[in-house]
Model the fold of this input.
Amino acid sequence: MRILHLAKYYWPRSGGMERVVQGLAEGAAALGHQVEVVAIETQGARDGAGGGTRVQRSFSVGALGSSEIAPGYLMSVLKRADIVHVHHPHVLADLAVLFRPGRAPVVVTHHADQSRGFLRPVVRTVLRRAAAIVVPSRAHLALSKELRGFEAKAEVIPFGIDERRWNVVPPPAPGQPPRAIFIGRLVAYKGVDILLRALERVPDLRLDVVGAGPEMARLKTLMRALAISDRVRWFGEYPDEDLPRRMADADFLVLPSVTVEEMFGLVALEAMAAGRPVITTALPSAVREVNVKGVTGLEVPLRDVEALAEALELLGRDPRLRQKMGAAGRQRVKEQFTQARMAQLHVELYERVRGGGARSGRVPTPAPITGS
Done:
């Protein structure tokens, strides 16, 4: 089967959507399919291949808000494919689909709603044309305004990761003060300011912050005001291939997001695969389907500094609890959230839509786990 992914960016650019597209592409290639990805390059156009996948990168001449201007991207309409897989939001991919001749079925993965209202008619036209719309969780489908009216086309397939690169992460060195880690963009909805305020109340804990973004200057000012500079390390934007090395220093991961813009929390899966427990917030999103409260980690109310500080202190002082939760998280990823499982479920979906058959009705959401 010839599978064409129309993505905004691709590895080595690091981000949740980029890692999902890479996992789908390399996973399908490992199953023997021909996979090509079209993506945007902001530093210079280059073609390449990796993991059995051919990648064509179109040079961006500029940006209009969050949308890149890459005229060469539209040449993807000429590529042969048995399945065209579009990753939303991405207006250039939508235009390529609308201009594309032929009748190859279109599958859309909905990562987030389109933020620019004037583009929504284009988005809805592609959603109407799509044979299936993939979302990573039931919560995602419920929260999306864009997908209202398209629920009958929805297929819930959880995101997955290549757990092999995280399984080899060693445990933290013994005898060191406990260390938490945050990995992600430094933007307001990530709640890193709440994390810093909670850290102030846990004097024995250290924190690594991996990521960059518009909030960095404000967060560093807050850190200095809280007098915790000696306990926080800032690593900035970090190469994706080196992230396991940063995880190796940490005892647990914190994802303190404060809005449902945190739709899934792929980084929590990576920490769990590395045997680290996670602390997440009580968002009504897929984050709750990833981290199982009391089993693979802890959950705290939104924007609750005191509750987050208590969770930090609990994991910081209890290595046995960290080990127990870390082992449970690793097992959960192995059973529910691997790249291989995600790719296999997508290939089965491709085969169904190519055959013109009705949806199977199977919704492979993660199995719940309850504590004892």
